[in-house]
Amino acid sequence: MSGLAALIFDVDGTLAETEEAHRAAFNAAFAAAGLGWHWSMADYGRLLTTTGGKERMARWREERGSGPSDAAIAALHGEKTVRYAALMAGGGLMARPGVLALVAEARAAGLRLAVATTTSPGNVEALTRALWGRTAGEVFDVIAAGDEVAAKKPAPDVYALALRRLDLPAGAALAFEDSRNGVLSARGAGLRVVVTPSAYTAGEDFAGASEVLADLTGFDLTRWG
């Protein structure tokens, strides 16, 4: 693996099937705010084509023709993040098959680990603690989050940020994604990308991916050096 120096992971849907927990947290926050909003699974699946929770709420507001201001949406998203963290802390979340073994193998091989995500750092922290029982900074060398860049996925910005923080060229890293927007983002930054479709992204177009797998069980790092 002399040519491979780092793995860069998307978070939601890639490390774990988290979207139903996100949906539940959104709906609880909406109810607490008295908005009268509720996202069904079909609603949420459609909204996921817009990356970023605040952006999804803004899209829903525009589709409804009225709703909270941008500032109120930002505050509501903060409340949703608190609720999501509580759900993560409650236990029961499992990593997708092969994820924990791959991360451990990569560490043992001396590879660096990074996250490139549209979700918030708080959500990354909550998920990492739920899966590994450790802080995000203990598991990952670099965390690049959506609000740190000008444009979220499918723009390449967040992957480019992760590469800058790793101080590596794109050819020295391998990205892991679950969505079409993620593939476009990683490829736009010049990365090879492996896709493991999730419950909400199965059936999307993954053209441009180096490989599409059901999950990461038995993933062979030596093939990517």
Task: Give the structure's gist in a few sentences.
This protein is α/β, with parallel strands linked by helices and 225 residues long. The protein has nine helices and six strands.
Topology pattern, helix = H, strand = E: EHHHHHEHHEHEHEE
Poorly predicted segments? none
SS field, number of helical segments: 9
- Supply the helix-strand structural class: alpha/beta
Number of beta strands: 6
Secondary-structure blueprint:
Layout: E1 6-9, H1 19-32, H2 41-47, H3 53-64, H4 70-89, H5 99-108, E2 112-117, H6 121-132, H7 136-139, E3 142-145, H8 157-166, E4 173-177, H9 180-188, E5 192-195, E6 211-212
Parallel strand pairs: 1-2, 1-4, 2-3, 4-5, 5-6
How does this model look, in words?
- By secondary structure, the chain is of the alpha/beta class.
- Helix content is 44%, strand content 11%.
- It is built from nine helices and six strands, in the order E-H-H-H-H-H-E-H-H-E-H-E-H-E-E.
- The chain has a six-stranded parallel beta sheet.
- Helix 1 crosses helix 4 and helix 3 packs across helix 4.
- The longest helix is centred in the middle third of the chain and has 20 residues.
- It is globular, with a radius of gyration of 17 Å.
- The chain starts with 5 loop residues before the first strand and ends in a 13-residue tail after the last strand.
